């Protein structure tokens, strides 16, 4: 394996050994209340003074807007503020404890949006979710819950394809988190809240402090720590239970609330404890022309999620041993604990300025995310009556190194109306994904295994596991080069072009480009648009994930335990089933819109877009049947009866529109109000699908690989449109900030029966935050009270009666599955 550290040594050596935690300080113009005057650094190599000057739609979210949402994570706050962002809030159970859903733009998957911190690529989580919700299934995303809101200066959201500018993953857009860069001051804030129904209590303590460094440098530290209890959104479990006190122990028996501890088992938001995030951001000028910078993050947390309760009814006892019955006579609730540890460091050196000799930026970063899982309330009956009920299931570890040299210069000329902003650079990236096997008791058969006994003894009762066979690592290297040009061609026409070429060690070379332009018809009205090609490389998590579980299936000759396995893409077993090595998604992105500023305090933008994705990366459904058994017969994989694997068998097209409007209303002695409106609408459809051919000549159809419900996640899993309305009113020491969101209908499909499809109706959500600056009591003291989902709105209930009808709401419901959330905050700025 090429050593990534050696590959980046020439960059690291350029950094001074005295590099402290530092970062580029971005100069920001005076922010007015309508936020039309921001220095925007995302989407353009020139630092434009307002997002309305951009060729592509850019949203700027300030720190005060984030705080006013009452949200404790960046992803949740952005979902409340951006009409283009989607984030299902109802994923539950053990999988939900692994990785929180990340931000998803324009109805696409969460890993099709690139996340930057201070303009530098952020590493992803080491795990993906297998839960069936739009934007999440199969996606290894950036865990935004690890970045303290208190550390954020602003967030810029570029809603346009940008692979030619920033590289892989920028299919739907880019989220750039700009960190605080203060050399003095600070603040601390405590938040307490819970759901109206009495659960989900949350507590969070956060703060930040700025320090001065020599030569007008700065160091800003920020942190948050907290916990929140689980929240339950299930119906009582009215399934039939095993009754050991009757002559026929398999007789149907209805437990009631008094004699079944499992009747009200929880399947809602997981419990989070021991959460701690720390961030440092600093810059140290060496002289008037040179500076070093760096920023670092560290985060950890423990999440505990309850899975589906397993009840000893007559339909499940057939595959339980005597040891299982002794351990769990009334059934059990398998529980998954996930411990996350994450850290990252970016360091760099800058020299010069764009308007003089040019600005040189040399940087490197390293990020690592470790996801460790432990199973509770488990048992491996083949190890007998003393089999442990808890065991380590395995580690998932993702690492990434990025290094680069960027050069930017404004070149004076006599051809165009303004200097040409010239940018060029070299980039290097190393990705690695590693799996570490869990305890042997989770995936091996013990001394009490007896395959002749019925029911079969030795079924490892595990949630999911990494076996000794699965333990491995994959890595890759990426070398890239880019060129970016932008200028005012005439007084009214600004245009830009970007080209990026990259070479991947695992699937070759790719080259992509983007052209964009903005034409000012008059000072108040402009037309803008872009066309680009792009790609998204498979993440190393998708390339390297493989895991094992055991499921019991009934055959003609009786019940047998069979392995369920997620196969490595391109592995021998996957190839026998028609699987192939993963390829990058190839994209074409078109955008056309306008910007209208009829008055000084009013702005309106409207954009249409189309995103074509070929070879879309998809996690297949669990595949069973004769095609699987025939293909694997006579091989070491013959005991595998249920498989899933990543593939490139679908193409999609997404079309949509986005509208934003802002207006500041001056009420004189009654203060002023900032009004905002956002609207997005999109539709994705599958434009092509391909079958897989097994080694024995059987066909596994694309509708088996991606069943009706999986296709619905892509085509109908997000609301058809989303409307956001907001107002911010400040008068003296008081502030009032109401917000309203409307989600249109979405649809889920049954895997096999169209009669069980369900279309969920629209939902309205209202928020309110009321703040008071108690400066008369103590300068800097402030209080806030508020509510998310003020009027306790719930999604439409699911008609799916599987698992006893316990689950109330679809995993795709965008908000409100736990009802109203009320909170109170006390803060102190100094």
TrEMBL record:
A single Gene Ontology CC term: cell outer membrane
Residue span, TonB-dependent receptor-like beta-barrel domain: 291-790
Principal location: membrane
Domain of life: Bacteria
Domain TonB-dependent receptor plug, first and last residues per copy: 54-174
Keyword entries, A-Z: Cell outer membrane, Membrane, Receptor, Signal, TonB box, Transmembrane, Transmembrane beta strand, Transport
Location relative to the cell: Cell outer membrane
Signal peptide stretch: 1-22
Membrane topology: Multi-pass membrane protein
PANTHER family linked to this entry: PTHR47234, SECRETIN_TONB SHORT N-TERMINAL DOMAIN-CONTAINING PROTEIN
Family: Belongs to the TonB-dependent receptor family.
Protein's name in the database: TonB-dependent receptor
